């Protein structure tokens, strides 16, 4: 809202009153996670309607995501209100519904989700003025069925007479940035290990959380090219390992490695664990092969987070 002057929709698993009031200052739509939060903040809702529109996140209990860590509808999830809980809820002052079942998925997964949502929540859909389909739509990925997405949105709007919102999320930042790291040392222990000036746990935590193996420019799967190395991070965490890659030439101290497609989460999930320096942020201009550093992080940035 501050930077772009556009419409902002905000959801949080739980608000306290101070955070809710601050959120309302910057948001056109505010989404609660549970009926109990609606009951708790009924007076705040009444105070700010209709200038702020309020919604409730529902949990369709329909899983499309294979990795449980990223599945909002996994068994026992705290995210969203189930059908059983909704039947007992007082939704006075609530205009819209929100659900989020996807993670890096296609329109076919949304189609299956919508079938479940409409089957379980139709009475509430027909009383809503808007529905937010959440994030995880991989709209910019090659092969994504955009035509199906358009049909799904149009048909849903027609059936329920609601405005529909989507949160493309990662899709708008896909393949927009890289993380450049340098080899600091090469050690031997059951094969060569290149120690880098970056960190899986501090700079690319999804590598350990999901887990996943980031794409590395000019490298391949282990054993496919002549020289295979495991890549390790700079922190003291024993498991701070990015993975094994093979290279056409031996790695040497000072070599730079370019991890692809790292901007969207590396920018927001980095930490200064162990005092590891945050990556500098730079803008690259392909027209003249130049880059300009926008921000360097120093010791003071680490210190000032602590006191």
What does this structure look like?
This protein is α/β, with parallel strands linked by helices and 307 residues long. It folds into 2 domains: 9-172, TIM Barrel; 179-304, Lyase, Ornithine Decarboxylase, Chain A, domain 1, CATH 2.40.37.10. The protein contains 10 helices and 13 strands. The protein has helices spanning 17-26, 35-40, 42-48, 83-86, 107-125, 146-160, 200-203, 206-209, 263-269, 299-304, and strands at 9-11, 29-32, 53-57, 96-98, 130-132, 163-165, 179-188, 192-196, 227-232, 241-247, 256-259, 281-285, 290-295. The strands form 3 sheets. The protein has a 6-stranded parallel sheet. Strands 10-9-8-7-11 form a 5-stranded mixed sheet, with no helix packed on it. The chain has a two-stranded antiparallel sheet with strand order 12-13. Helix 5 (107-125) runs parallel beside helix 6. The protein is elongated, with a radius of gyration of 23 Å.
